[in-house]
Amino acid sequence: MRSRSAWTALTAVLAVELVLGAVLVVTMIPTFPAAGPEREALAPLWVSLFVSAILCCVWVAATLVGVIRRRGSWVRGSAVTIHVLLLAAAMGVFQGILGTPAIGALLLVLAVAGFAAAILVGPKRKGAAAAAPQAQA
Fold first, then answer.
1. Model-level pTM?
2. Predicted confidence pLDDT, tens digits, the chain (137 residues)
3. 121 — alpha (psi -120 to 50), left (phi > 0) or beta?
4. Can you tell me the distance from the alpha carbon of 91 to that of 77, in angstroms, rounded to the nearest whole number?
5. Which of 3, 11, 58, 102 makes the best surface tag, with the fewest CB within 10 Å?
6. How far apart are CA 18 and CA 64, in angstroms?
7. Count of CB atoms within 10 A of residue 116's CB?
8. Phi, psi (rounded to 5 degrees) for 122
């Protein structure tokens, strides 16, 4: 039962992260550097951040699809990696590099919840289905 609730929690956390990532990508579009002397310097930076945000969304989406399909073989590693990186991002926000403390707190909560769920997610037990009929007999 613990594994089922962990799968549900991991699905919910990844879904929230995917929605927030998509919102970030969409809200980045109007911030493209305007014409001016700094455009040549800022445009490549903006494009690289934009592409990185899209790739992160694709990674989270692929992991979410794996979680929904209960593919425990690679999903745990991917989810743990995502949430360790999210924890690093939260620490960067708390240090004042980017964002506000509220964003840092949200990232921290998502990172800890997702990491814990990813650790608790277990593979399907093959012996559990066979042991249940024997217990009823």
1. 0.82
2. 458 889 999 999 999 999 999 999 999 999 888 777 788 888 888 899 999 999 999 999 999 999 999 887 899 999 999 999 999 999 999 998 788 999 999 999 999 999 999 999 876 666 555 444 554 54
3. beta
4. 21
5. 102
6. 8
7. 15
8. -115, 160
